[in-house]
Amino acid sequence: MTIGSAGSSIVVPRNFRLLEELERGEKGIGDGTVSYGMDDGDDIYMRSWTGTIIGPHNTVHEGRIYQLKLFCDKDYPEKPPSVRFHTRIKMTCVNHETGVVDPKKFGMLANWQRDFTMENILMQLKKEMTASHNRKLVQPPEELHPDNPYRCCLAGTPNVEEQYIYPPPRAMETLMKSRPSFKFVKSQ
Length: 188
What we know:
Radius of gyration: 17 Å
Strand content: 15-25%
Number of helices: 4
Number of strands: 9
Mean pLDDT: 79
Strand order of the largest sheet: 3-4-5-6
Order of helices and strands: EEHEEEEHHEEHE
Shape: globular
Largest sheet: 4 strands, antiparallel
Low-confidence stretches: 1-5, 144-171
Structural class: alpha+beta
Protein backbone atom coordinates (compact mmCIF):
# COMPACT_ATOMS: atom_id res chain seq x y z
CA MET A 1 0.00 0.00 0.00
CA THR A 2 1.40 3.38 -0.98
CA ILE A 3 0.29 6.83 0.05
CA GLY A 4 1.08 10.09 -1.71
CA SER A 5 0.31 12.42 -4.56
CA ALA A 6 1.30 12.02 -8.18
CA GLY A 7 5.02 11.59 -8.48
CA SER A 8 5.65 10.84 -4.80
CA SER A 9 4.65 7.87 -2.75
CA ILE A 10 5.23 6.58 0.74
CA VAL A 11 5.41 2.84 1.24
CA VAL A 12 3.56 1.67 4.35
CA PRO A 13 5.95 -0.42 6.50
CA ARG A 14 5.35 -4.16 6.75
CA ASN A 15 4.19 -4.22 10.39
CA PHE A 16 1.74 -1.34 9.89
CA ARG A 17 0.33 -3.14 6.89
CA LEU A 18 -0.04 -6.38 8.87
CA LEU A 19 -1.68 -4.55 11.79
CA GLU A 20 -4.17 -3.12 9.32
CA GLU A 21 -4.86 -6.61 7.94
CA LEU A 22 -5.23 -8.01 11.47
CA GLU A 23 -7.78 -5.37 12.37
CA ARG A 24 -9.77 -6.08 9.22
CA GLY A 25 -9.56 -9.85 9.71
CA GLU A 26 -10.81 -9.64 13.29
CA LYS A 27 -13.84 -7.60 12.24
CA GLY A 28 -14.94 -10.35 9.87
CA ILE A 29 -15.23 -10.24 6.12
CA GLY A 30 -18.45 -9.88 4.17
CA ASP A 31 -20.94 -12.65 4.93
CA GLY A 32 -18.71 -14.35 7.50
CA THR A 33 -17.67 -17.28 5.31
CA VAL A 34 -14.04 -16.12 5.22
CA SER A 35 -11.95 -15.03 8.19
CA TYR A 36 -8.34 -14.83 9.28
CA GLY A 37 -6.20 -13.89 12.25
CA MET A 38 -2.79 -14.33 13.82
CA ASP A 39 -1.82 -17.69 15.29
CA ASP A 40 0.17 -16.13 18.12
CA GLY A 41 -0.65 -12.67 19.43
CA ASP A 42 2.84 -12.50 20.96
CA ASP A 43 4.60 -12.92 17.61
CA ILE A 44 6.03 -9.42 17.12
CA TYR A 45 6.96 -10.25 13.52
CA MET A 46 3.36 -11.25 12.72
CA ARG A 47 4.41 -14.16 10.52
CA SER A 48 2.03 -17.04 11.19
CA TRP A 49 -1.69 -16.65 10.39
CA THR A 50 -4.73 -18.92 10.23
CA GLY A 51 -7.42 -18.45 7.63
CA THR A 52 -10.81 -20.11 7.44
CA ILE A 53 -13.11 -20.58 4.45
CA ILE A 54 -16.59 -22.04 4.69
CA GLY A 55 -17.22 -23.86 1.41
CA PRO A 56 -19.47 -22.04 -1.07
CA HIS A 57 -23.03 -23.15 -1.79
CA ASN A 58 -23.86 -25.39 -4.75
CA THR A 59 -20.41 -26.98 -4.80
CA VAL A 60 -18.91 -30.14 -3.30
CA HIS A 61 -17.35 -27.77 -0.76
CA GLU A 62 -20.71 -26.65 0.66
CA GLY A 63 -20.86 -27.01 4.43
CA ARG A 64 -17.18 -27.86 4.77
CA ILE A 65 -14.92 -25.68 6.87
CA TYR A 66 -11.42 -25.30 5.49
CA GLN A 67 -8.56 -24.14 7.66
CA LEU A 68 -5.45 -22.68 6.05
CA LYS A 69 -2.07 -21.53 7.28
CA LEU A 70 -0.55 -18.41 5.79
CA PHE A 71 3.08 -17.53 6.50
CA CYS A 72 4.22 -13.96 5.87
CA ASP A 73 7.98 -13.92 5.57
CA LYS A 74 10.06 -10.79 6.15
CA ASP A 75 9.54 -9.81 2.48
CA TYR A 76 5.74 -9.64 2.78
CA PRO A 77 3.93 -7.73 1.21
CA GLU A 78 6.56 -7.36 -1.50
CA LYS A 79 6.36 -11.13 -1.94
CA PRO A 80 3.28 -13.29 -1.31
CA PRO A 81 2.81 -15.37 1.80
CA SER A 82 3.08 -19.13 1.58
CA VAL A 83 -0.38 -20.69 1.78
CA ARG A 84 -1.23 -24.22 2.87
CA PHE A 85 -4.57 -25.89 3.50
CA HIS A 86 -4.52 -27.58 6.89
CA THR A 87 -7.83 -29.25 6.04
CA ARG A 88 -7.67 -31.85 3.28
CA ILE A 89 -9.01 -30.54 -0.02
CA LYS A 90 -8.85 -31.39 -3.70
CA MET A 91 -8.43 -28.38 -6.00
CA THR A 92 -6.37 -27.96 -9.15
CA CYS A 93 -4.14 -25.32 -7.54
CA VAL A 94 -3.49 -27.29 -4.33
CA ASN A 95 -1.01 -30.14 -3.87
CA HIS A 96 -3.28 -32.90 -2.56
CA GLU A 97 -0.45 -34.50 -0.55
CA THR A 98 0.81 -31.41 1.29
CA GLY A 99 -2.07 -28.95 1.03
CA VAL A 100 0.29 -26.29 -0.32
CA VAL A 101 -1.27 -23.82 -2.75
CA ASP A 102 0.97 -23.93 -5.82
CA PRO A 103 1.90 -20.35 -6.80
CA LYS A 104 2.32 -21.45 -10.43
CA LYS A 105 -1.27 -22.74 -10.55
CA PHE A 106 -2.93 -20.01 -8.48
CA GLY A 107 -2.89 -16.77 -10.45
CA MET A 108 -3.01 -14.40 -7.50
CA LEU A 109 0.24 -15.80 -6.07
CA ALA A 110 1.86 -16.12 -9.50
CA ASN A 111 1.09 -12.48 -10.32
CA TRP A 112 1.50 -11.08 -6.83
CA GLN A 113 1.21 -7.32 -6.32
CA ARG A 114 2.07 -5.41 -3.16
CA ASP A 115 -1.52 -4.21 -2.80
CA PHE A 116 -2.89 -7.76 -2.54
CA THR A 117 -3.78 -8.96 0.96
CA MET A 118 -4.42 -12.20 2.81
CA GLU A 119 -8.11 -11.38 2.55
CA ASN A 120 -7.76 -11.22 -1.25
CA ILE A 121 -6.08 -14.64 -1.23
CA LEU A 122 -8.83 -16.24 0.85
CA MET A 123 -11.61 -14.68 -1.19
CA GLN A 124 -9.94 -15.78 -4.43
CA LEU A 125 -9.49 -19.34 -3.12
CA LYS A 126 -13.19 -19.40 -2.22
CA LYS A 127 -14.00 -18.18 -5.72
CA GLU A 128 -11.68 -20.84 -7.16
CA MET A 129 -13.77 -23.48 -5.34
CA THR A 130 -16.74 -22.44 -7.51
CA ALA A 131 -14.80 -22.68 -10.79
CA SER A 132 -16.07 -25.41 -13.12
CA HIS A 133 -12.83 -27.42 -12.80
CA ASN A 134 -13.09 -27.48 -8.95
CA ARG A 135 -16.76 -27.28 -8.02
CA LYS A 136 -17.49 -30.99 -8.56
CA LEU A 137 -14.15 -32.64 -7.75
CA VAL A 138 -14.63 -35.53 -5.36
CA GLN A 139 -13.26 -34.39 -2.02
CA PRO A 140 -11.19 -36.50 0.36
CA PRO A 141 -12.94 -37.64 3.51
CA GLU A 142 -12.65 -35.26 6.38
CA GLU A 143 -10.19 -36.64 8.87
CA LEU A 144 -9.69 -35.76 12.47
CA HIS A 145 -6.34 -34.62 13.70
CA PRO A 146 -5.55 -37.04 16.55
CA ASP A 147 -4.76 -34.21 18.97
CA ASN A 148 -7.86 -32.18 18.17
CA PRO A 149 -10.01 -31.66 21.27
CA TYR A 150 -12.49 -29.34 19.54
CA ARG A 151 -15.55 -29.97 17.42
CA CYS A 152 -17.04 -27.25 15.33
CA CYS A 153 -20.72 -27.66 14.60
CA LEU A 154 -22.49 -25.87 11.78
CA ALA A 155 -26.16 -26.55 12.34
CA GLY A 156 -28.58 -26.47 9.45
CA THR A 157 -26.03 -27.42 6.83
CA PRO A 158 -27.20 -30.34 4.68
CA ASN A 159 -25.36 -33.62 5.34
CA VAL A 160 -22.98 -31.99 7.80
CA GLU A 161 -23.34 -32.46 11.52
CA GLU A 162 -19.82 -31.81 12.70
CA GLN A 163 -16.65 -30.32 11.33
CA TYR A 164 -13.35 -30.73 13.13
CA ILE A 165 -10.78 -27.99 13.39
CA TYR A 166 -7.28 -28.09 14.87
CA PRO A 167 -6.46 -25.89 16.67
CA PRO A 168 -9.46 -23.60 17.15
CA PRO A 169 -8.32 -20.39 15.43
CA ARG A 170 -9.06 -16.99 16.91
CA ALA A 171 -10.52 -16.00 13.58
CA MET A 172 -13.30 -18.50 14.17
CA GLU A 173 -14.61 -16.27 16.97
CA THR A 174 -15.71 -13.85 14.27
CA LEU A 175 -17.70 -16.60 12.59
CA MET A 176 -19.22 -17.63 15.91
CA LYS A 177 -20.48 -14.08 16.47
CA SER A 178 -21.78 -13.60 12.93
CA ARG A 179 -23.46 -17.02 12.59
CA PRO A 180 -25.57 -18.12 15.57
CA SER A 181 -25.57 -21.73 14.37
CA PHE A 182 -21.79 -21.93 14.62
CA LYS A 183 -20.20 -23.07 17.89
CA PHE A 184 -17.19 -24.82 19.37
CA VAL A 185 -17.77 -27.80 21.63
CA LYS A 186 -15.01 -29.45 23.66
CA SER A 187 -14.86 -33.18 22.82
CA GLN A 188 -15.32 -35.71 25.59
